[in-house]
Amino acid sequence: MEHEQIVSGVNHLGKLVNLYALIPEVVQQLKSDVGKMEVRKRFNLTPTDYERMMTIARREGLISFLNRKKDPTNSYTLRADNHERVVELSKKLGHSPYKALNKILDDFFALIEKSVPLSEGME
Fold it and tell me: Which residues, 6+ apart, have CB-to-CB distance to 38 below 8 Å?
């Protein structure tokens, strides 16, 4: 039994090393607008292999998180008191201040949608 576990572990590690070696080529293909399915086909990757590679590539900084693209017009400044409140809530929730602020805004917008339309309350 132990021998089989060792062999399985070595095979798994070997597969990860092979995937790691392919990452630069795969990232280059993706950046040249080749689609995900085409990349998987070219490199004979399973969906799990592809996701593992993308996770490693993100950690290495080779690709960015898809939902984290920064818009130059998306730079808001909070008043100091609001910032303190966001930081306090983020500590309670166990999240980053960014995630806590997004949670606050999600909840706020959900409340607004259920009550008065925003344009009516701004008069």
Answer: 29
